[in-house]
């Protein structure tokens, strides 16, 4: 996911590997020319969400992650890549990391991007979601699978932490953008968790 701001871009997630990150960075630059990728938000440290993070660091992006991930991310960013050097290994760039305890706001003065720690997730206890208040969109990593997994995972494990955090944070949500699937309405999500509107 890429979010365009006045003078920069925020990308949410760097999945899989450098090849994937290079493709996404190329597409971001094509769609949003002349604006640097200033931030890369890492929602959590599973490989399918973090594998390409070094590529964004090489681009000069500040990596934003939950504070409990800082030590692990430091190891990932400082690890030597001598057998198969990646883009970061070939630069003198010093990676920048900013951590989120419970909430961080990124703004360009007009647009606000809210990054929240997800409390109560058994999938990962150092997980972040991104909320775009103007658009009423939540970008989330692993709590609302689409297409539905067959058999579906227990809603209590997947969807309920997201529901509980939307309620706790009093977020006004219209759409959910899962990082594993297509954008869905809040109504679809409420059907998935079996809960009434907030």
Fold and architecture overview:
The protein has six helices and eleven strands. The protein is of the alpha/beta class. The protein has one domain (2-193): 4-Layer Sandwich (Metallo-beta-lactamase, Chain A). It has a six-stranded mixed beta sheet with strand order 6-7-8-9-10-11. Strands 1-2-3-4-5 form a five-stranded mixed beta sheet. The longest helix has 14 residues, at 18-31. The mean pLDDT is 93.
What radius of gyration results from the CA coordinates?
17 Å
Category by helix and strand content = alpha/beta
The count of domains is: 1
Note poorly predicted spans: none
Strand content: 15-25%
Order of helices and strands: EEHEHHEHEEEEEHEEH
Number of strands: 11
Give the overall form.
Answer: globular
Q: What kind of sheet is the major sheet?
A: 6 strands, mixed
Present the secondary structure layout.
Blueprint: E1 2-4, E2 9-12, H1 18-31, E3 37-41, H2 47-50, H3 53-58, E4 62-66, H4 70-78, E5 96-100, E6 103-107, E7 112-117, E8 128-132, E9 137-140, H5 159-169, E10 175-178, E11 184-185, H6 186-193
Parallel strand pairs: 2-3, 3-4, 4-5, 9-10
Antiparallel strand pairs: 1-2, 6-7, 7-8, 8-9, 10-11
Supply the key terms:
alpha/beta; 6-stranded mixed sheet; Metallo-beta-lactamase, Chain A
